[in-house]
Write a structure and sequence with these properties.
Elements: H1 29-60, H2 64-98, H3 109-120, H4 122-142, H5 145-152, H6 168-203, E1 206-213, E2 219-228, H7 230-257, H8 271-301, H9 305-334, H10 338-356, E3 363-368, H11 398-405, E4 411-412, E5 418-424, E6 427-435, E7 437-438, H12 448-454, E8 458-459, E9 461-469, E10 475-480, E11 485-486, E12 494-495, E13 505-507, E14 517-520, E15 531-533, E16 541-542, H13 546-556, H14 560-563, E17 573-575, H15 580-587, E18 592-593, E19 598-602, E20 605-616, E21 625-626, H16 627-631, E22 644-645, E23 647-657, E24 663-667, H17 673-681, E25 686-687, H18 694-697, H19 704-717, H20 722-727, E26 732-733, E27 749-753, E28 762-771, E29 779-784, E30 795-800, H21 809-818, H22 820-830, E31 836-839, E32 843-847, E33 850-860, E34 870-878, E35 881-885, H23 888-895, H24 923-948, H25 951-972
Parallel strand pairs: 3-30, 24-25
Antiparallel strand pairs: 1-2, 4-7, 5-6, 6-9, 8-12, 9-10, 10-11, 13-17, 14-15, 16-17, 18-20, 19-20, 20-23, 21-22, 23-24, 26-28, 27-28, 28-29, 29-30, 31-33, 32-33, 33-34, 34-35
């Protein structure tokens, strides 16, 4: 009878064989494989449909190179990263398998089973691990295709960082790429080391336990800490050494990161950064290299005490030199001597920030002494500027456009309208404009046919004079109705692509087919019958091929594209991704579009103009700004995620045709290195600035988001004195809009102004700034917004003198609200149950040697669904003088002693109101005003009696005032 524990020929106890693992029953094996295959096939079909339809979309727009370049680069990076990871995993695991012990000492039974399984299926295990981690690594590489393209085609900025003597291009293009490469190397070596440790554990080269069989046949599990085979020790030592070398490179690269990260004062290098943190990084990098060498040596000596102790010392040194030492320098050297220590660094930060945001050429008039007294004829020199004062508020007049020009409930306008300029009768005229778009939510019957094939487009741009209104307070139209009539000739007014067009449309039909797209609800110019149209533009992707229709049906999850043979035919085209900003972002993913796309009529066609930016958050030593926070105000509330930037250029003007969706990109800042870099990536995609048609250039303007960011930066960086900057003794802030509800920043305004000292008014974008924590006016800033002007982009600031207090927007609005004349005029519209008064935007205009505040006042006759705002009054303030009039001219003449000295041009317009209103107040209104005046006097008498303690007279006057108020309300009905 054999012994239960036979001896090995060498005399050692033979390791008991692990029991073979039980085979799991596999009755559902074929079903699982079928389901897995179907899942893979479904993913492949979905992926292919997305890929191929994207290719068709880019090809139709003639920008296939964008799709091809990004896809090819992504596939290349995917392949390289996948290969490197897979090669590292396979190579290291094969080495680990070959280094496995040939003879096995006792171990836990579970580990014995793992060893047996790994021996039997080590190829499948290695390939599975390589495939899994290779795909993960490849996906991370695919996501970095734009970073790689920018690095590969980088253009120097010509600006050298003073602290590390690197061109700004190193930080903008090179640094993010090398960070990715280093991170990928860490990931590859780290995953390989982890898998190698598991492999050595599975093969028995790494053991913490052993199984011992006693002479009596009893099995005991004993602990054997840290046992490693010599080969496993060498393998893991080499991998640890490589990781330490990578950490050393990481420390060296981290030094440059101080130029683009925030310190206690600003973004960029500070004193403590350069004199302690950079030094600490160098020290830790050198220690890491020494530790790596010790691990490489340990691969032969296999004496772990020395490298382990070295790593411990490195960690302690890292805590001391990277954590404690910089803190001590900052606390006991920098902060007590702040201005002296940081002066040169602040100077560099100021210079870099002003350059990065295009503020290096800003012109500032210091201690501007504004005139606050009004005299007759004071505005004579501003005669040409007064007609440019915009009375129609684009943020408030939208509902009026909706009620008067909507035509049908399924059309809609933007909530905040746009300001543009048109040449009318040979004269540049400021206009408030809006595109009449389809509102899919209001389509009467939202079935598939109506939603995607009938209600396919909006129609026409509606425009109103910015400085005029009809006698009844309604806007005076430049362009209106369907089909469009007025001064703007729209030969192609159909809007298939717009800001509110968020559904796809199937358009087009074979020649001779009956049209199905609703075109003019009123029936054309005759107004007799509803007319329909068949799309004849070049936009969209042709889906006459059944296979292409099927791919789009899969992409959109909509089988109607295949089943609706009556509306989807051989000549059909599919329009999708129809908003201007969406199309721009797909065509040029390296650009950031402005939050406001605005419509224009150019050579008879309706187009959308979108300003586009090249941005970076890695421009060295420039202060970061949150793009979302800086561009949000009372008229714009962006929903994008916080986005820090410290470099911003309006490098491209984009034009999107509203009829066919064609996207044209024009280089605007042709010297911008980021733009030039992407022009190398996609040659020919961006046209030269010289190719912009003159008719298009007339409608281009200074972008609003850029101006908002610049004014936000200038709240602190208007001062170039490092001591003033450090002490924060001259800070500004953007005031809250006193008219809008909630604490939201006042929006900039587009209007024509004449800058003090200039001869002619220019179309500008303007804003005011107030001292930090105060409500008085601190500065007035404006930029030449006329793209056709040679002075376009000229940014100027009037910094008000501290010797004279000038009321800011909030103080002015409070003063207007408490003015007796204003209160008397508006009292009938403030009473419960009657009309309501709404103040429009508060404009600030430099005229008469001072600053004039102008705000339009709108009234709404009721709060019913059909009510809309009409312009009723205009309130102005100059210095301490406040006046309200039914026209701007009346209000100005009152403020300036009966004669402003110039005409506003309001009386030049024709009276086009359909229901002319009398110039004088109606009899009921006259009676109400008289009764309200008597009620006001009674209230005053009651207050006086109460102060004297005469309660009988107080009650009598109070009752009288109430009767007068009631009578006034009755008179208005």
């Amino acid at each position: 009878m054999s012994s239960p524990n036979p001896r090995h020929p060498s005399g050692r106890a033979r390791e008991p064989r692990p029991a073979p693992a039980a085979r799991p029953s596999q009755p559902s094996g074929p079903l699982v494989r079928i389901m897995a295959g179907l899942g893979v096939l479904l993913l492949a079909v979905l992926g292919f449909s997305r890929l191929w339809t994207d290719w068709l979309w880019f090809k139709q727009l003639d920008v296939a190179q964008v799709f091809q370049t990004r896809l090819a680069t992504g596939i290349l990076l995917f392949g390289i990263c996948s290969f490197l990871m897979a090669a590292s995993v396979v190579g290291n695991l094969v080495i680990a398998h070959r280094l496995r012990p040939r003879t096995r000492t006792g171990g836990l039974p579970a580990l014995g089973q793992a060893r047996a399984l790994f021996d039997a299926r080590h190829r499948a295990a290695i390939l599975s691990a390589a495939l899994f981690f290779g795909v993960l690594s490849g996906l991370s590489g695919f996501a970095q295709r734009d970073v790689f393209l920018a690095w590969r085609h980088a253009t120097p900025f010509g600006t050298v960082d003073p602290w590390f003597e690197k061109d700004a291009a190193f930080y903008v293009f090179d640094y993010p790429w090398w960070r990715f490469v280093l991170g990928q190397a860490f990931w590859i070596v780290g995953v390989s080391a982890f898998l190698v440790a598991l492999a050595h554990l599975a093969t028995g080269a790494l053991q913490s336990f052993q199984v011992v069989t006693t002479p009596g046949g009893q099995t005991l599990v004993t602990r054997r800490p840290g046992h490693l085979s010599a080969q496993a020790q060498s393998h893991l030592s080499v991998l640890a050494g490589v990781l330490l070398l990578l950490y050393a490179v990481d420390c060296w690269l981290d030094r440059f990161g101080y130029s683009i990260t925030n310190n206690w004062l600003f973004t960029g290098v500070g004193y403590a950064d350069l004199h302690s943190r950079v030094v600490a990084k160098n020290i830790v990098a050198m220690i890491s290299v020494l530790c790596a060498v010790l691990f490489f040596v340990n691969a032969r000596l296999r004496r772990w005490s020395v490298p382990v102790v070295a790593v411990v010392l490195m960690l302690v040194s890292a805590v001391l030199v990277q954590g404690i030492y910089p803190t001590v320098v900052q606390r006991f050297d920098v902060q007590p001597k702040g201005p002296a220590r940081e002066r040169s660094y602040i100077e560099q930060n100021i210079a870099a920030t002003r350059t990065a945001y295009g503020l290096h050429g800003v012109e500032m008039t210091e201690n501007y002494d504004v005139t606050t007294t009004a005299s007759a004829g004071q505005l004579r020199a501003d005669a040409e500027a007064l007609p440019g004062i915009r009375l129609i508020d684009p943020g408030l007049i939208g509902p009026t456009f909706e009620q008067l020009q909507q035509v049908r409930g399924y059309y809609s306008f933007a909530d905040v309208l746009d300001v543009d300029r048109y040449t009318i009768d040979g004269k540049a005229t400021d206009a408030v404009v809006a595109a009449r778009e389809i509102n899919a939510d209001e389509i009467p019957d939202r079935n598939w046919t109506n939603l995607h094939t009938v209600y396919t487009h909006g129609n026409g741009v509606v425009a109103a004079y910015g400085n005029r209104r009809q006698a009844n307070g309604e806007p005076e139209w430049i362009s209106r109705d369907i089909p469009t009539v007025g001064a703007l000739e729209e030969t192609q007014s159909r809007i298939y692509f717009g800001e509110r067009t968020n559904t796809y449309a199937v358009v087009g039909a074979p020649e001779g087919s009956d049209p199905v797209e609703l075109d003019t609800p009123g029936g054309g110019r005759s107004g007799a019958n509803e007319t329909r149209n068949t799309y004849d533009g070049k936009g969209g992707v042709g889906i006459g091929n059944p296979l292409i229709r099927a791919l789009y049906a899969i992409r959109f999850g909509d089988p109607n594209l295949v089943l609706s043979t009556g509306r989807v035919n051989s000549a059909s085209r599919l329009l999708y991704d129809r908003t201007p900003r969406e199309r721009l972002q797909k065509v040029a993913p390296w650009l950031t579009p402005d939050s406001d796309a605005y419509p224009a009529v150019v050579d008879g066609r309706v187009v959308w103009i979108v300003d586009a930016y090249t941005t970076s958050n890695r421009y060295p030593n420039s202060n970061q700004v949150d793009l979302r926070q800086a561009t949000s105000d009372s008229q714009t509330s962006t929903l994008q995620q916080p986005r820090p930037v410290n470099y911003l250029r309006n490098s491209v003007k984009a034009v999107i045709d509203a009829g066919d969706g064609n996207v044209q990109l024009y280089a605007w800042d042709e010297q911008d290195p980021i733009l030039r870099t992407w022009q190398k990536v996609y040659p020919g995609q961006v046209k030269s600035k010289k190719e912009i048609p003159a008719s298009m250039l007339e409608h281009m303007r200074y972008p609003s988001d850029l101006f908002k960011v610049q004014r936000e930066v200038l709240t602190r960086y208007h001062s170039t004195n490092p001591d003033t900057w450090f002490q924060k003794s001259d800070l500004w802030e953007v005031p809250n809009d006193p008219v809008a509800p909630g604490a939201r920043k006042e929006a900039p305004n587009y209007l024509s102004i004449r800058w003090p000292g200039d001869q002619q008014p220019v179309f500008s974008q303007t804003s005011v700034l107030v001292p930090k924590g105060r409500e008085t006016l601190g500065a007035y800033m404006a930029v030449n917004a006329d793209a056709s002007s040679s002075d376009y982009g000229r940014l100027r600031i009037l910094k008000l003198s501290d010797r004279k207090q000038v009321a800011g927007p909030g103080q002015t609005f409070n003063a207007i609200g408490s003015d007796d004349a204003v209160a008397t005029k508006l009292r009938p519209f403030m009473m419960q149950g009657s009309a309501q008064a709404h103040f429009g935007n508060l404009l600030t205009i430099p005229v008469g040697g001072g600053l004039l505040y102008v705000t339009p006042v709108y009234t709404q006759q009721s709060t019913t669904s059909g009510a809309y705002l009409v312009l009723r009054f205009v309130v102005v303030r100059f210095g301490e003088q406040i006046s309200i009039g039914t026209t701007l001219q009346e209000a100005l003449d009152t403020v300036f002693k009966g004669d402003a000295g110039a005409s506003t041009g309001e009386g030049d317009q024709p009276q086009t109101s359909k229901t002319p209103a009398p110039s004088a107040p109606a009899k009921g209104e006259q009676a109400a005003l008289k009764l309200l005046d008597e009620a006001s006097k009674a209230f005053a008498a009651a207050d006086a009696a109460l102060k004297k303690g005469d309660l009988a007279t107080y009650q009598k006057q109070l009752d009288l005032a109430r009767r007068k108020m009631s009578a006034a309300e009755t008179a208005l009905k």
